[in-house]
Design goal:
Elements: H1 3-16, H2 26-32, E1 35-40, E2 47-51, E3 57-62, H3 67-83, H4 96-99, H5 104-117, H6 120-131, H7 136-147, H8 151-160
Parallel strand pairs: 1-3
Antiparallel strand pairs: 2-3
Helix pairs in contact: 1-5, 3-5, 7-8
Length: 170
């Protein structure tokens, strides 16, 4: 799936769930899209997605992770729920799949999470309306604060949207 299609799906989900401004209420959005989160103490993974016997989606989210990481993981798992082909009931997607950062499937879920939590139009509006083209670190920090994501996630998204590039690294 192409980036443009993923971003369009994320915007459709936000519109369907009445989300108009940051930060996205990821728990509300996921519930509206039929995904249930289970916050639990798990090691070595941030999260995992599975379907129950009735075909309803569930995501396990690690309670050990920072709340900002949990938000991103929730959005990532919602990506599995909405974008992946229907998984057979009680088939847990292998945690190892989440560590394969170069796999197209993993990339699609990460891009969906970024597009859902930091949609292109919202980021552009935020930069135009409040920050302009300030210093790189200030821009990353303020986008992270406003959209309630980690600085690392904000930096990746700002690069994807070409608001910053590698040449602007400190």
């Amino acid at each position: 799936m192409r980036a443009e299609a993923i971003a369009r799906i994320a915007l459709e989900v936000l519109a369907r769930q009445g989300q108009r401004t940051p930060p996205v209420d990821i728990d509300y959005v996921a519930s509206g899209e039929g995904l249930v989160y289970i916050l639990t103490d798990v090691e070595r993974i941030s999260g995992g997605y599975f379907c129950d016997l009735d075909g309803h989606g569930h995501a396990i989210i690690s309670s050990r992770e920072h709340p900002l990481r949990q938000r991103f993981t929730k959005a990532h798992e919602l990506g599995h729920h909405l974008l992946d082909p229907a998984a057979p009931p009680v088939q847990i997607l292998q945690p190892s799949a989440y560590r394969k950062t170069n796999s197209p499937r993993h990339w699609a879920q990460e891009y969906f999470a970024g597009s859902l939590l930091m949609p292109r139009p919202w980021v552009g509006d935020f930069i135009r309306d409040t920050l302009g083209w300030g210093a790189r670190d200030e821009l990353i920090r303020e986008v992270a604060r406003r959209f309630q994501v980690s600085r690392a996630a904000a930096e990746v998204r700002l690069r994807e949207l070409r608001h910053i590039d590698e040449s602007t690294r400190p």
